[in-house]
């Protein structure tokens, strides 16, 4: 008869199981390291390649979003000289997506000599322009070769299409229209998307150096100058806003119609002392720097002392001398009425600082209206140069690169999955393509050389005789071209597809099958992608332990072939890429 185990026996069994698991841990840990080392040697190159691809796509998306958001953010750094070289009192009215700045270098930086700017521009054209074109063409043609190989198992392609993809040695300027003609009127691929994308990629590859060269350039540093009443050009930063006009200023020993300016805008846009002068432009209908109207930081600023007295007086007694009461200006008592003070920048109803229709600027006791400044203001270059980018062209080029990257990935994924299912591993290279094309052309050109009869009369002693000789017509390039284009309509070359798939099961390459196979990996990647953002929002900036977490987890999942191998790779990746940098960052910050 079966007797249930006693509690003492249960505890003993559990303890022995725990001891067994603990004793197995060193063995599993060593085995995991051996497996991880083997996996790392076999897959680290492919993992690094996929990391570069992911960084490339994320970088393009981030750059595109940054340019979209920067259209409004960059306006805060503009002065009276706009990126297109025009003079304006309202920099916020400029739009980086405006067509006037298409060929202008609107994102320029630096202060360099002409030689330095020219050297940077030439290096950019060579490295990014020509180097980028070579890399773009190499990646594209590798993917095209894979895709056309799978397409040729379904329907043939013309000789010219085959030669363009597998034996590209001609000019794309001629090859693109011929490829379009073959796709439209002769043998097409089995996917319209693929045909359109291939033509787009070829045109993009052809124009890439021109696009890259056009979106960069150098220009002279410019400064805003205004022609004064004396006929001299002075920096616009030397002008002040006209804040007040004291019509009866003689009552406070200043003289009538005394003009009160802002005392020189010597502070930065955010009010930092000892920064570069600020140009008195208009920002969203307000003054660019209304520091002397504030009552907190600048209360003790020397340049604002008198201005603050006037501002405080206006705040208490109002504008235009409408109150018939005793008033006090600074330490001086004034009998009724109050001072007759007018302001072109104060709204009398709300007493807020803003641009008014009669706004004026001041330079050496002479006032200037908005019309005067717009008429006499100019942006003049100095001896320094800037190098940078065209905003619109940069946006277009990044968008085209993103479209190309996504399209290439889709085409590669499609061709890769089809080749896996059909068990095909070999793609025609330069030498094999020559043999395949020659064989197809020879088969379809059978009978091109036709015999003709010639009569050769020779004199013999016993009488005349006639001989018939077969002479082959020489095969010329013109005759071959005529035969291919006219009679064969471009020719055709194809591969024989297997009747039954002898590769991997097709269901294994569907999206749903991939999600099911990697459901736990996806479940781990989603929170790891959010952790860096959450740590940046809620934790100290000195805590960077979660920044590399998505890359570490992705590398462990891709390289490791077993669970133990993935744990080991993730462990050491976390130590090297998260813990060690965090220790260094903490040590340097203290």
TrEMBL record:
Keyword terms, alphabetized: Membrane, Transmembrane, Transmembrane helix
Presence of keyword Phosphoprotein: no
TM region(s), chain numbering: 47-70, 127-149, 192-212, 387-412, 520-537, 543-560, 567-585
UniProt keyword Membrane present: yes
Top-level taxon in the UniProt lineage: Eukaryota
Region (Disordered), start-end ranges: 448-467
Protein name, per record: Uncharacterized protein
Organism the protein comes from: Curvularia clavata
UniProt lineage: Eukaryota, Fungi, Dikarya, Ascomycota, Pezizomycotina
């Amino acid at each position: 008869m079966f007797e249930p185990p006693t509690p003492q026996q249960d505890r003993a069994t559990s303890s022995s199981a725990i001891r067994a698991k603990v004793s197995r841990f060193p063995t599993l840990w060593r085995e995991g390291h051996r497996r991880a080392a083997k996996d790392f040697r076999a897959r680290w190159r492919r993992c690094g390649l996929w990391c570069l691809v992911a960084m490339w796509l994320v970088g393009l998306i981030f750059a595109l979003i940054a340019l979209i958001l920067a259209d409004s953010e960059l306006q805060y750094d503009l002065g009276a000289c706009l990126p297109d070289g025009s003079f304006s009192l309202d920099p916020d009215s400029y739009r980086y997506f405006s067509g006037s700045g298409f060929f202008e270098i609107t994102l320029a930086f630096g202060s360099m000599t002409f030689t330095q700017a020219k050297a940077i521009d030439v290096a950019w054209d060579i490295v990014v322009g020509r180097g980028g074109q070579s890399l773009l063409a190499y990646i594209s043609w590798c993917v095209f070769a894979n895709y056309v190989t799978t397409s040729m198992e379904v329907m043939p392609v013309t000789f010219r299409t085959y030669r363009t993809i597998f034996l590209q040695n001609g000019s794309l300027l001629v090859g693109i229209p011929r490829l379009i003609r073959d796709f439209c009127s002769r043998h097409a691929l089995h996917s319209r998307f693929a045909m359109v994308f291939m033509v787009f990629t070829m045109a993009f590859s052809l124009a890439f150096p021109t696009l890259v060269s056009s979106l960069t350039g150098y220009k002279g540093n410019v400064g805003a100058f205004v022609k004064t009443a004396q006929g001299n050009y002075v920096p616009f930063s030397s002008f002040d806003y006209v804040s007040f006009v004291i019509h009866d200023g003689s009552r406070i020993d200043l003289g009538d119609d005394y003009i009160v300016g802002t005392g020189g805008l010597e502070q930065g846009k955010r009010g930092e002392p000892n920064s570069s002068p600020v140009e008195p432009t208009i920002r969203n209908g307000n003054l660019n720097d209304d520091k002397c109207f504030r009552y907190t930081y600048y209360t003790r600023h020397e340049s604002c002392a008198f201005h603050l007295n006037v501002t405080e007086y206006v705040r208490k007694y109002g504008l235009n001398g409408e109150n018939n009461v005793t008033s006090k200006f600074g330490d001086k008592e004034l009998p009724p009425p109050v001072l007759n003070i007018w302001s072109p920048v104060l709204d009398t109803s709300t007493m807020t600082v803003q641009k008014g229709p009669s706004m004026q600027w001041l330079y050496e006791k002479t006032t200037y209206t908005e019309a005067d400044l717009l008429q006499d203001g100019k942006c003049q270059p100095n001896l320094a140069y800037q190098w940078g980018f065209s905003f619109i062209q940069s946006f277009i080029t990044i968008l085209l690169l993103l479209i190309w990257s996504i399209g290439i990935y889709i085409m590669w994924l499609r061709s890769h999955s089809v080749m896996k299912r059909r068990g095909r591993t070999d793609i025609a290279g330069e030498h094999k393509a020559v043999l395949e094309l020659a064989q197809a052309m020879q088969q379809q050109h059978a009978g091109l050389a036709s015999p003709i009869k010639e009569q050769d009369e020779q004199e013999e002693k016993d009488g005349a005789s006639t001989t018939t000789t077969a002479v082959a017509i020489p095969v010329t390039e013109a005759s071959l071209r005529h035969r291919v284009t006219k009679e064969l309509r471009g020719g055709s070359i194809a591969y024989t597809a297997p009747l039954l798939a002898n590769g991997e099961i097709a269901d294994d390459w569907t999206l749903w099958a991939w999600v099911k196979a990697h459901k736990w990996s996806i479940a781990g990647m989603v929170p790891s992608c959010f952790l860096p953002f959450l740590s940046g929002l809620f934790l100290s900036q000195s805590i960077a332990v979660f920044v590399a977490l998505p890359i570490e987890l992705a590398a462990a999942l891709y390289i490791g072939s077993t669970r133990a191998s993935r744990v080991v790779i993730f462990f050491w990746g976390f130590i090297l890429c998260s813990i060690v940098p965090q220790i260094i960052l903490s040590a340097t910050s203290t």
